[in-house]
Specification:
The protein is α+β, with helices and mostly antiparallel strands. Helices cover 30% and strands 24% of the residues. The chain has helices spanning 56-68, 108-112, 118-136, 192-207, 218-227, 236-243, 250-265, 270-274, and strands at 13-15, 22-32, 35-42, 47-52, 81-88, 94-101, 139-140, 149-152, 155-158, 165-166, 278-281, 286-291, 294-299. It comes from Halobacillus litoralis.
Length: 306
């Protein structure tokens, strides 16, 4: 879908037609099919993200999603909603906009630089935990991709909910690389497995930072790319099980990936287990805790999942 791009210069102001609240533009941070997102500052000096678009109905759908996801079963999903209004430009045209929490962080691929391969599973598990709550609430993310994710304080955050679709409906917005229909791996029906496929593609992108074409045999292309990445070797079976449809929900995939991490970090002999050895990895981000004769793994990352 064509991007809706608005060019508002730094220092420009967007004033709500109905509320009179003014937001000063700091910089443009992105553009999509539904509008352009700017970093802005409120009159009180708080920093937010402001999304400006043309289609009022689509913008309101996103606003409603943000409000709905403010708390799903006690878990915060997506940025917090702040404000919604219309803006009238100098020519007299009216455009809808809404304001939300500005999530400051790093793109997934940038965050992973210098990290061990365990972090691929850690970030995937965080993402699956949020998807688990979303799916339980009756929705599918839809346009799940690295462009819609940031790592803030070692935690994956969603920054765009424009593609969220009610379960059972047709996916309304997608990006080909992450879309199972594009790879001839399933339909575009909004169901949990649609998002799970996108998670496998995000993992695949971590092993192959440069996106690749599907070629004449899409499924074979995916299998070859998966097999050729040493970073993805520990997760090959889990990803293949998703592709085959043997993993049906986020909880199952999360459990499988957690099992891979446990196996990778298990002490190699019983002597270390008896000693209650506590091995710290990457400054405590991954800890293997041995208690008695059993080994328990704790992935502890600033308010991490579970």
């Amino acid at each position: 879908m064509k991007k809706q791009v608005f060019d508002l210069p730094p220092g420009g102001r967007v004033t709500g037609k109905w509320s009179g609240r003014t937001y000063t533009i700091i910089k443009k941070v992105g553009a999509g099919a539904c509008g352009t997102v700017f970093l802005c500052r409120s009159h009180q000096g708080d920093t937010y993200a402001l999304k400006l678009g043309e289609d009022s109905s689509r913008m309101m759908l996103e606003v409603n999603m943000l409000k709905k996801f403010s708390k799903v079963q006690g878990v915060k999903l997506g940025p917090s909603f702040v404000d919604v209004d219309d803006w009238v430009d100098r020519s007299g045209r009216t455009y809808p906009f809404y304001v939300m929490e500005y999530v400051e962080g790093k793109p997934v691929t940038e965050f992973l630089k210098g990290k061990t391969k365990d972090w691929i599973a850690i970030l995937a598990i965080q993402l699956l935990t949020d998807l688990e709550n979303l799916h339980n609430a009756g929705f599918v993310f839809g346009d799940l991709k690295t462009d819609n994710l940031l790592v803030s304080g070692s935690k994956v955050r969603w920054i765009d909910v424009g593609g969220v679709t009610a379960t059972g409906r047709a996916i309304k917005e997608y990006t080909e690389f992450y879309d199972r229909g594009y790879w001839n791996m399933g339909s575009r029906k909004a169901e949990p497995t649609y998002d799970l496929f996108a998670v496998t593609m995000i993992m695949l992108e971590m092993g192959h930072p440069k996106r690749f074409e599907k070629g004449n045999h899409p499924q074979k292309t995916l299998e070859n790319k998966l097999a050729s990445s040493s970073l993805l070797k520990p997760y090959k079976r889990v990803i293949q099980q998703c592709w085959k449809g043997n993993i049906r929900n986020a909880t199952q995939m999360k459990d499988h990936l957690s099992g891979v991490l446990m196996k990778r970090k298990s002490p190699p002999d019983s002597t270390r287990q008896r000693r209650g050895h506590n091995k710290r990895v990457e400054n405590g981000e991954l800890a293997a805790l041995t208690v008695g004769s059993g080994v328990f793994f704790v992935v502890s990352i600033v308010s991490f999942f579970f």
